[in-house]
Amino acid sequence: MSVSRVALLLLAGVLAFGVSAPQAAAGAARATAAAPAAVASPAQQLRPVRMGLIPVIPSATIFVPMDKGYFAEEGIDLQWENVQVTAEAIAQVGAGNLEAAVATIGAAVLNSLNRGVDIRILSGVHGNPPEGNGGDPMLARKDLYDSGAVRDASGLRGRRVAGNATGVYTEYAINGALRTAGLSIADVEFVPIPFPDIPNALANNAVDAAFVPEPAATAAIDAGYAVQIVPEFLRGAQITVLVAGPTLTRDRALTEAFMRGFLRGLQDLNTEGWTSPANAAIIEKYTRVPAATVQRIIPQYADPEGRINWESLMDQQRFYMERGYLNYREPLDLTRFADDGPRQAALAALR
């Protein structure tokens, strides 16, 4: 598997990829030696499920159960493929080229839902915890912090603030951080910069602050040119969700089997921790972020039962509508695009 440098730096998100198609197969059981005419039973036939993923730390929600064999135990050969952006993933899922994907609900995705793309939202994936630090911090240049010019979001008025793009969760998150000081995205100069280039932009004084996913944020802080200024904002925000297309949702038994494997992984991350040696090693295996780094960064958060914060998603939709990014005028009821049956059935089976 080849992984671009972007995969080393992104969190929900969001633009770098590796390619892998890990497969698991059950071994064939043999008849006892004493039995006459011993014949091997056929191996279990795993059913392929193709999934669009970005090999970044939040994708541990898929990599952990996949690597531990939870999907294989459910009769699933999970094959993950690279996508450029989540809007592409949604299109591929809706067209049946992929069965599922992890996606943010940005403006492009919302416009696709409005156009009638055939997808269903099955579960939450990751987001901000109900309280405490989220895994994607807001940073400011250290020299500005040390001088007292920028100690919190209030010091960002009129300054250059970087994020990877507009119309996506990054812009919404910056706005959320600014709201802690009574400001909004309109009070700063938004500078679109690819995530892997943001640390250098901070180091070179090209921007004053930035929303930077892990592990790039910790790397910038350790290098001595950035400081976290808004430790906690957008409590409980839903960043990514699990979406499925018709090639998966038409098969209820397969969808429920997938959800059982997925939820077992979420529960492991919750009970063992994202930074446990075993889970950190799995994250390193698929993202190339060293396990030692994974164990030092602010942990990501995923609800262990895959619950979705719908109000958070609706608030994101309202933000994109106010910014003029949506091609419709009235907010969509996003729960119309949900199918919670498989998740509920999987939870009941796992109890």
Question: Which short descriptors sum up this protein?
Answer:
351 residues, five-stranded mixed β-sheet, alpha/beta, globular, 2 domains, D-Maltodextrin-Binding Protein, domain 2
Short synopsis of the structure:
By secondary structure, the protein is α/β, with parallel strands linked by helices.
Strand residue percentage:
5-15%
Q: Could you list the spans in which at least 5 consecutive residues all have pLDDT below 50?
A: 1-42
Helical content (DSSP H or I, runs of 4+): 25-40%
Taking the alpha carbons of the first and last residues, their distance comes to 36 Å
Main structural class? alpha/beta
The total strand number stands at 10
What radius of gyration results from the CA coordinates?
21 Å
Q: Give me the side-by-side strand order of the main sheet.
A: 2-1-3-10-4
**CATH superfamily placement of the largest domain:** Periplasmic binding protein-like II
Summarize the biggest pleated sheet: 5 strands, mixed
Gross geometry: globular
Looking at the structure, the CATH topology of the largest domain is D-Maltodextrin-Binding Protein, domain 2
CATH class of the largest domain: Alpha Beta
Order of helices and strands: HEHHEHEHEEHEHEHEHEEHHHHHH
Count of helical stretches? 15
What is the second-level CATH architecture of the largest domain? 3-Layer(aba) Sandwich
Integer average pLDDT: 87
How many domains make up the coordinates? 2
